Amino acid sequence: MMNVFVTGVGGQLGCDVMNELKKRGYIVIGSDIIEKNDDHYIQLDITDQAAVEAALHALRPDAVIHCAAWTAVDAAEDAENRDKVYAVNVDGTKHLAEACRQLGCKMLYVSTDYVFNGQGTEPWQADCEDYAPLNVYGQSKLEGELAVAAALERFFIVRTAWVFGHNGSNFIKTLINAGKKYDTVRVVDDQIGTPTYTFDLARLLVDMIETEKYGRYHATNEGRYISWYDFCVEFYRQYGLSTKVIPVSTAEYGLSKAVRPFNSRLDRSKLVESGFAPLPTWQDAVKRYLEEAKL
After folding, report:
1. Rounded to an integer, what distance in angstroms lies between the CA atom of residue 260 and that of residue 257?
2. Which of the four pLDDT bands, split at 50, 70 and 90, describes residue 254?
3. Which residues make Cβ contacts (< 8 Å) with residue 151, sequence separation at least 6?
4. 28 — phi, psi (to 5°)?
5. Is 75 a domain residue?
6. Which residue in 35, 247, 280, 295 has a CA-CA distance of 20 to 30 Å to 287?
């Protein structure tokens, strides 16, 4: 039976990955920075190389699914946070990759469309190496990718985008709460991509580590590419909110410190070519999420 170690289980994706692994009967240990009393959990600061090596050598996993990351994109731009961002997203990833190399175990690293420059209208291919991150978060995640690829031969890098799940805050929760308070909301309509439900992504990640089909992949829910405005209109419709959604440009919205990509289209075709089941459509994912979230 496979023994799997998961980082970042306090987050949306890590939590769902743990649940999926348990459902399949694997031996699984999760970790995060906070203290927690749970037989399937250890407290671990991935920026501490000695602690990472000690933990993994004690657990001797067959695979590591690395979900832990600094994901506060705007806060990453603040000068006082940059060292921490790189410590988590780059150094922490290097430490895990090096421990995986020593143990000869597989590693799956969850990355982002932010490693690209976000320009144009063509979907980004999974094996595209035309990297040009627009912000600190994107640069740190790219350097994490490069660290994994430099240390290991047996790795998966899975880029995703527009993630939503039950464990923590996300765009759907935020906008539904706003829609209950206000008659109108403003949402950007010139950033294009597809949403990803962590419940569905977790299933795919576990499918992947059951194989030897290593490499770089793109994974979001299926369906047409949309804007954040389109996404909001659809989940308001499904939820039954009559709040008016006003489309605005990124420039008009103007609230973020970090430069955001206009083109977050990720080409998912490599998944099917490699024999993995695609994720359900994002409309179906929203339906299931809203039924389960009870917002």
Report:
1. 9
2. confident
3. 94, 97, 98, 100, 101
4. -140, 135
5. yes
6. 247
Distance CA 160, CA 172 (A): 17
Beta bridge partners of 247: 187
- Domain contains 133: yes
H-helix or E-strand spanning residue 98: helix 92-103
* Amino acid in the structure at residue 5: F
Take residue 258 and report the two structure tokens written for it: 């970090």
Active-site residue numbers? Answer: 137
Q: Which two tokens stand for residue 256?
A: 């973020």
Amino acid 249: pLDDT: 96
**Number of domains composing the chain:** 1
Q: What is the CATH number of the domain that holds 108?
A: 3.40.50.720
β-bridge partners, 108: 65, 156
Query: Looking at the domain assignment, is residue 23 inside a domain?
Result: yes
Q: Are 110 and 141 in contact (CB under 8 A)?
A: no
8 Å CB contact between 187 and 232: yes
pLDDT value, residue 255: 76
Full residue range of the structural domain in which residue 139 is found:
3-170+195-223+265-280
Mean pLDDT of 182-198: 98
Residue 1 in this model has a pLDDT that exceeds 90: no
DSSP lists the bridge partners of residue 122 as none
Question: What pLDDT sits at residue 108?
Answer: 98
Judge whether 159 lies within some domain. yes
How far apart, in whole angstroms, are the C-alpha atoms of residue 226 and residue 192? 5
